[in-house]
Amino acid sequence: MAQGAPASFDFGHKQRDLRSGCLRLGDCVTPVNKEAFQLKNLSIVETILRDRRRIFAEIQRGVGLGEKIRAMLISSIAFLALYGAVMGSTHSLWQALSSAAKLPVLFLATLVICAPTLYFFNLIYGSDQSLTQNVALILTAVTVTAVVLLSFAPILMFFLLTSSNYQFFKLLNVGIFTLAGLVGVRFLAQGMRFVSANAQEGASARGRVMLLWIVIYAFVGSQVAWTLRPFVGAPNMKFELFRQLGGNFYTNIFASLGELLGFLTVR
Fold this sequence. Notes:
mainly alpha, 0% strand
C-alpha cells in the first residue's frame, strides 16, 4: 500500500495538469492564452473590423497595448507591401519589389512624424491618453486603411491587365488611396471619441485639433509619398529607386488629370 500511494498521487497530479490546461504533464506551466495568441497574428484585423468597440475599450484601459501594436504593425506592413507590389507591377519586377518595400515605409514614417503632434495637442486640451494609446489608435486607422487598399488590389490588377494608360492608372491609385484614407480616418475619429469619453474638459477643442491634425497628416503623407516616388513607374523611363526632388505632389496630379482629359501633355 505504501508503494502504491505515490503512483496514485502522480496520476492525480497529471489529471490536475490536464484540467488546468497546462502544456506539460507533471510540470505545470502557464496555460495557453488563446486571446494573446490571436493578437500575435493577422486575426487582429478581423477583431478591429467586427468589434471595434472592444478594441477601443481595451486601448482606453491600456490592456495589451504592446501586443496590439505589434499585431497591427505586422498586419498593416504585410497588406501595404502586397498592395505596393501590385502598384509597381505595371512597370517591372524591380519596381514591384521597390513599391512593396516603400509603401509600408510611407505610412509608418508619416505616423512617426505626426503622432507626437496629436499627442501633445490632446494633452494641452485635457486628454488623459498616453503616447502609446495615441499610437495604438493611429495604428488602428493605418491597419484599416491597409485592409481597404488590399481589398482594391483585384480591381487594380484588372485595370493593369486591360488598360495601358499610365496617367489613368496613377490617378486610379490616388483615388483608391483617398477612399481608403477616409475610411481609416473615420475609424481614428471614432476611437479618439471613445477613448476620451471620460475627459469632458476641452472635448470640443480636441475635436477641432483632430480635424486639423487629419489635414496635417494628409499633407505630410503626400509629401513623404512624393519624396519616396516612384511607386508606379512611368513606362517610358528606366527603373529608379528614387527620383530627384522637384515639383510637388499636387501639381503632378493636376498635370496627370490634364493629360488624361486631353488638354495638357506631361513630359
